[in-house]
Write a structure and sequence with these properties.
three-stranded parallel sheet, mainly alpha
């Protein structure tokens, strides 16, 4: 946080340049995922207060989930003046739509914010997305070691990790 504040003039210049070049949304990120909700909220408030160019564009918040508080930080950012939240449907790396919607559904009145997401529907959709995108074990010849039928090529796919790539490289 102190590094960000130490480089405030550089951040201000970057934001003003982006806006002057036509940006309609500026995304403010906690890419380290180290800010607590009150810290991220204060950061957003400070930026909006001290960078006039942010009054003319949408301010989006994106929070990494290093402390398992990304959704809380994102909702706090909205309370602090952010116009949008950048979130993912499923996963653990950043704030998720279901987590944010759940916070807003349970505590939105306290923050004077709301959303009309149907929680049953979002849970059904995210479950389907997880099912469609989960890694399928055993789909690559490298999952359990190199094996191939005579004359066929070894193929690495998106399910292979660094160990699989290493095994393949040893066979070259």
């Amino acid at each position: 946080i102190s590094l960000i504040m130490a480089n405030f003039s550089s951040l201000k210049q970057a934001i003003e340049t982006a806006v002057s070049c036509g940006a309609s949304t500026v995304t403010i990120s906690d890419t380290a995922g180290s800010m607590l909700p009150n810290e991220f909220g204060s950061f957003i408030r400070n930026l909006k207060k001290n960078i006039p160019a942010l009054q003319t564009v949408n301010v989006a918040a994106q929070c990494i989930n290093e402390l398992n508080m990304a959704a809380a930080c994102a909702v706090t950012a909205v309370d602090a003046g952010a116009d949008e939240i950048k979130a993912i449907a499923t996963g653990t790396s950043t704030a998720t739509v279901p987590d944010i919607a759940r916070i807003i559904r349970l505590r939105g009145e306290d923050l004077n914010i709301g959303c009309s997401i149907n929680m049953m529907e979002i849970n059904r959709l995210t479950t389907q997305i997880e099912w469609l995108t989960r890694a399928k074990k055993g789909t690559s010849p490298f999952d359990t070691g190199i094996s191939s039928t005579q004359g066929s090529d070894f193929i690495l796919n998106s399910y292979d990790n660094i160990d699989a790539v290493s095994k393949a490289a040893l066979q070259l």
